[in-house]
Design a protein that fits this description.
- The protein has 2 domains: 172 residues, Vaccinia Virus protein VP39 (Rossmann fold, 3-Layer(aba) Sandwich), CATH 3.40.50; 59 residues.
- The chain is 26% helix and 35% strand.
- It contains 7 helices and 11 strands.
């Protein structure tokens, strides 16, 4: 999640324009919307907001929300959506958060795993800590390494064709590029039937086990309140709820 270089899928105009259409079911965000009510949050920071789906849902519920992402292309898509004026959109990352103190900070969609270096991860945790009010919570999800999700990221298992309005058929699939633990590299492939263009986007993800992530949080001053299961992916992901002490 470094501000220096974002994956092509988050920056290339043609790829960013189809990002939401390739993943239209965002019921995975429902538990996070519920947590806003559960914890009585009035101000929220959506870190790694991407094309702004969660931030816009929060704004529509009257929440004061800022969406932060390093990818200018994704933010352009977010700003063009209905209701976008109700969100403060900021190009940046966890090391360059706005001077504010919020009730809650989210990192959904495994955005935490896109922070691959330990230095950037520690700096992000420190930045989030400072952005929270005393008593505020940091909630993020990350895949359980023990489930070895990358073994399922093969062309055979992921290839599909999506018909997108105004674009036509887009064939997409994932292929593994290698594992250098704790880093896993993969390549996303997108074939546009209209003009036979193939675009690819390489990603690197960092897998942290539960104990390691909890220790990192405590090292930056957080209290780890709870580690929940992801309702839409049971036993496959950790959902951390950490609190800045009052």
């Amino acid at each position: 999640m470094s501000l220096c270089v974002a994956d092509l899928i988050f920056e290339h105009p043609r790829l960013v324009s189809i990002y939401d259409a390739l993943d239209p079911d965002r019921s995975d965000l429902d538990p996070y919307l519920g947590m806003v009510e559960e914890f009585g949050a009035k101000t929220v920071l959506d870190l790694g907001c991407g094309t702004g789906v969660l931030a816009l849902l929060l704004a529509a519920r009257g929440i004061d929300v800022a969406g932060v992402d390093p990818a200018a292309g994704s933010l352009d898509v977010a700003r063009a959506k209905p209701g976008a004026t109700g969100v403060r959109w900021i190009q940046g990352d966890g090391t360059s958060l706005p001077a504010q103190q919020v009730d809650l900070c989210f990192m959904t969609g495994n955005a935490a795993q896109a922070i691959t270096s330990d230095r950037d991860w520690q700096s992000t945790l420190a930045g989030v800590f400072e952005a929270l009010k005393p008593g505020g919570r940091f909630i993020f999800e990350t895949r359980d390494p023990a489930r070895k999700a990358w073994e399922e990221w093969t062309e055979m298992a992921t290839r599909r064709v999506t018909l997108i309005e105004g674009v036509g058929e887009v064939e997409s699939w994932v292929e593994p590029l290698g594992v250098d633990w704790p880093l896993v590299r993969i390549r996303w492939n997108y074939f546009f039937a209209f003009d036979s263009q193939l675009l690819t986007s390489d990603s690197t993800l960092c897998f942290r086990d539960k104990e390691e992530a909890a220790a990192d949080l405590r090292g930056q001053g957080f209290q780890v309140e709870e580690v929940r299961d992801a309702p839409d992916r049971p036993s496959r992901e950790f959902v951390f709820i950490a609190r800045r002490p009052k």
